[in-house]
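re the bet — no i am not wrong, look at it urself. input seq straight from the record:
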Amino acid sequence: MKFAVQLYSLRNMAEHSGVESVFHTVSEAGFDGVEFAGFYGLSPKEVAELLRKYRLEAYSAHIRPEEVEAALPYIEACGIRAVFNPYSGLDELDDADRYAALLRSSARAVELLRPRGVTYGYHNHAHEFTGGVDRLQKLLRDASDLVAETDVFWLTVAGIDSVSYLRALGDRLAMVHIKEAAAQDPVAAPQPIVGKGVVDMEGVFAEMNRRGMEWAVLEVEKYPCAEKEYLSSSLRNMKRFAGSDE
């Protein structure tokens, strides 16, 4: 298994220390790659050069479906193999017209990406499960070509057992966001180092290993310690859970 960082996690570092410091930090911490959340206003060539310089792969990216076509030069230059819609709110998921538009734009994204060997899917938060409705499963039923990038932190916030849900997704599960959750007020609290919170990370990685998943993507929104310490410590524990801590 390989390990990546969702670069939204280092948005503050990019702002204060520059984009290159982000790639340097991820590489120095020992990660294999990154998941993009935007391209920093750089050209596709410039982004690809940063990846090469720091020996990082770009397996995946977060891109809204209607923005996929404009992002194709980045997807191709960086060798991205999976793209995910990072967010659709209830105003989009529960409104018939906007939901229909989301299905159309997602189908168009699949149409553009599939010939390039790239999958397209959806990344969940917690609101997809409010009111006892599983909007993620509904989306996957209504858009048969979409896959899921499941965030175990947000499943935990929604009161859902992560391991059971990953298992239930079957072959629609493409990737997993590894994000830890605090025991008390997890939305407001900093995310603990992976393995130090309440998410069943041992079970999550066991399920990922059972499926032969290639990548695990770390994300953190609120740090309990310095960014470099968090990345290194979390990666060490992720490798232990994955059985690849040599």
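see?? Residues 96-113 form the longest helix (18 residues). told u. also The mean pLDDT is 97. so pay up
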